Amino acid sequence: MDFLTLFAIYVVVVLTCIVLVCKYSGQQQTPFNILFNSVVKVVAPITPKWLQRFSQWTMHRLFHQRNNMFIYLHVLLECAVYAEFTFEVFGFCREMDTTLTSLSVPYILLAVKTFFFYLCIKRDPGTVTKRKVAAQLHIYPYDRRLFHPGVSCPTCQLVKPARSKHCRVCNRCVQRFDHHCVWVNNCIGAQNTRYFLLYLFSVCAMAGDMALLTADMLLHAVLHSGLLRASYIDEYGEQQPAGPLFVVQHLFLTFPRVIFMLGFLVFVFFLLAGYALFHSYLALVNQTSNEWYKSRGYVCQHCHPTTTADHLCSPAPDHSKRYYYSRGPLKNLGEIFFPPKPVQKKDN
What are the TM regions of this chain, as residue ranges (predicted)? Predict the structure, then answer.
C-alpha cells in the first residue's frame, strides 16, 4: 500500500497546483512567485555563475523565444500514450469482443487533432503589418478602457488596432490577441482562434475516449479474474475479503503502465476540458484571455490621477459595460469561426 500512498500524494499535489493556478491567475503576487523568489535568494549565493547563466539562457530560450521544444514534447508524449494503448489495451479489448469501430475512434480523433494542431502551428494568427494596419484599425472600435486610439507599438512602430497586443516571444503585434501558446509555438489571435478551440476539444475527446476504453478493459479484467469474490490473509493471519484497495493494488501490480497511462489521460482530460470550457466561455462573450486577464486587475494608465487633463480617456469610458465587444452568443461564435478580415481600399 506504500505505492498507492505515494501515488495518492502525487495526485493531490498535482490537483492542488491546478487549483492554485486557477485561483491566482491574473494576479501579480502569487504563492508560486513568492516561493520561486525565496528559493532563488537562498540558492543563488551557492550556485556557480556559469550554472546561473546557463539556467537563465535555458529559461529565456524556452519561454521567451520561439522554439519547437514543446511541440517535440507534445509529439513524444502522444507517441508514448498511443504506443501503450496500441500494444496493451487494444489487444485486451479485442479479446473482450470490443468492436473495431469503437477501437478505431481514438485513431480517427488523433488524425483530426493532428490536423488542427498543424493549423495552429502554421496559420498566421493575424499579424499587424504596415500593409494591413490601415484596414485593421477599422475592424474593432476602441473601448477607451483597455484599448485607446492613437497608441503606437514602440517595437513595431505601428498604430495599435483595438484588441491587438505585441507578443514579446514572436516579436510582432497580433490582431485580437489572445495569448502565446508554447505548445503550438505560435500566437493565438483573430485568424487561428477557431483552430485552437477545435484542437482543444479534439484533445479532450481523444483523452476521454481512450480513458473510457482503458477503464472498461480494467473493469473486465477485474470481473473475469474473480477478484471481487476473492479473499486474502492479512498480517494477523486472518482471512479478509478483497476490498477496493486490494483490487486497485492488484491492478497496479498487474498493469502498472496501463494504470499510469489511465491516470495521465484522466489528468489531461480534466485539465484541458476546464481550459476548453474557459475559452468557450470567452468565445461566447467575445472576450480574449488577454482582455479577461487585464480586466481582472484593471488599472488604466491613462486614467491615473497624476495624468494631465488632456489624457486619452476623455471622455470617460463606460466601465459598466464589461463585455464591450459582445454582440450575442451566436454572432460572437460566428466572429470566431468566420473572423472579419481587413479590407484594403482600392485607390481610385
Answer: 6-26, 69-92, 104-121, 196-219, 258-278
